[in-house]
Amino acid sequence: MIPVTVKEDLVRRSLPLLLAALVALVLAPPAQAAPGFAVAYRTIPGEGGTPLKAFVVTPTGRGSGPFPLIVLPSSWGVNNIEYVGAAAKLAYGSGYSVISYTSRGFYDSAGEVDVAGPDTVADVSRVIDWGLAHAAGDPARVGVGGISYGAGQSLLAAARDPRIKAVAALSTWTDLARSLYPNETVSAQAVELLLAAGKLTGRPGPVLRDAETAYRENRFADVLPISPPRSPASHVSSIKAAVLIGNAWNDGLFAPGQITDFFGALTGPKRLMLSPGDHATAELFGAAGLPNEIWTSVGRWFGHHLGGEANGIERELPVQVKPNNGGAWRAYPSWAAVTARTDKVALAADRIGTGWPTIAESGTVLVSGALQGFLNLPVGVSTPLIDRGAAAVWRGPVQWSGTSVSGTPRVRLTVTPGAARTTLYAYLYEVNALGLGALVTHKPVTLTGTGTRVVDLALEPVVWDVAAGNRLVLVVDTVDARYQGSSTLGSSVTFGADSWIEVPRG
């Protein structure tokens, strides 16, 4: 009798092959058609010889190559089946050799998870080496890309490997600390999700194990030193490849503020696409080979920068955004151009108690943003029911004609906390005549010390159309279930009369 654990391992290892066979059957061209593609399951030596398991999708009926080579590292907690559908379309439609591989330490690949550390990033280059030698790859036409963990690896590899000419980074991070520890506030739901997925589907290495220990002991600041080398923002000046970035406004893991800053620092050919949704939801179905706007742009991006196609993408304005509450794509020459002007609204003095939850919340990671993206159902609130003893509420003027929030709203608060550590959560809502609000954007900040100080807080970037007759309402409270806050129950926070909010307009 085969032990249960062995059976489970056989099933786990066989699943990628079964899924790949199904994808191949669904996407394969008719037998008499040419060109076509072939799918093979291979073991590729990564950095230090570590075996990495991969699906290699190569074009057929197009001669012996060389072909443009695209390498796609898998996402955190996902295996090499992730991109086989998209790879088949790229191989069949454009004649690329595409390698979709399981990142080090996960599923069928060997090694340990090092959180995009040196070995994981070097694996991208080792897979490129193999693709050039064994998959008829063209060394002058190499691209990399992926979703989430694969996207971050791709950007980091592009900073180190000059052979990489084009990158498609979807739902990526560019600054790990800003993503998971915004303004010294732990994004607890995101961290818990990543830790759980890492342990369930992978083999955490020392870096990840030590980081979890520090987090459990409330020493999150001790984790920060691992961020700079693992953050593409630290290496942006070394990236010479053409970079396409696609992220969602409501990404619960990697919020868009770090993305827009990184995009502005890139100096080569670049394209930014921001659209409704949560982490990986905007491009999810495209990875499986289904119709998808983001992956269509990815195909055109690689087509121009690797395939030499005159498809016009190089002439389009580089910043493409869809309003978070619905609407068509809008194009701008830069991220700064998204904002045409700003309106400053004064905030009256107020005082609230801390540590008490209110009905003002940022929502649930992955769930709330997905509802926004797929169904246009925002995180809502009834502003008359917000406890004014636990939250400050400032109502802006009614917008008698339609307008938009377009860019990065900024709040300046003169704050006097009553406790040694206090976490504030700022929410910007669009509110109708009945007081019912939809969350436009938000941001946390944790303050240390009890003295009066000025806090300049940039909310997350957004493009959001405000309906005629509605108003913007700013709410600040001290508890949010998404985050691990530091507010003391029974203490207080005072806001000075010289506070204000600056709203970007389109």
TrEMBL record:
<dbReference type="InterPro" id="IPR000383">
    <property type="entry name" value="Xaa-Pro-like_dom"/>
</dbReference>
<dbReference type="InterPro" id="IPR029058">
    <property type="entry name" value="AB_hydrolase_fold"/>
</dbReference>
<dbReference type="GO" id="GO:0008239">
    <property type="term" value="F:dipeptidyl-peptidase activity"/>
</dbReference>
<comment type="similarity">
    <text>Belongs to the AB hydrolase superfamily.</text>
</comment>
<feature type="domain" description="Xaa-Pro dipeptidyl-peptidase C-terminal">
    <location>
        <begin position="299"/>
        <end position="494"/>
    </location>
</feature>
<dbReference type="InterPro" id="IPR008979">
    <property type="entry name" value="Galactose-bd-like_sf"/>
</dbReference>
<dbReference type="InterPro" id="IPR050261">
    <property type="entry name" value="FrsA_esterase"/>
</dbReference>
<keyword id="KW-0378">Hydrolase</keyword>
<dbReference type="Pfam" id="PF02129">
    <property type="entry name" value="Peptidase_S15"/>
</dbReference>
<dbReference type="InterPro" id="IPR013736">
    <property type="entry name" value="Xaa-Pro_dipept_C"/>
</dbReference>
<protein>
    <submittedName>
        <fullName>Putative acyl esterase</fullName>
    </submittedName>
</protein>
<feature type="signal peptide">
    <location>
        <begin position="1"/>
        <end position="33"/>
    </location>
</feature>
<keyword id="KW-0732">Signal</keyword>
<dbReference type="GO" id="GO:0052689">
    <property type="term" value="F:carboxylic ester hydrolase activity"/>
</dbReference>
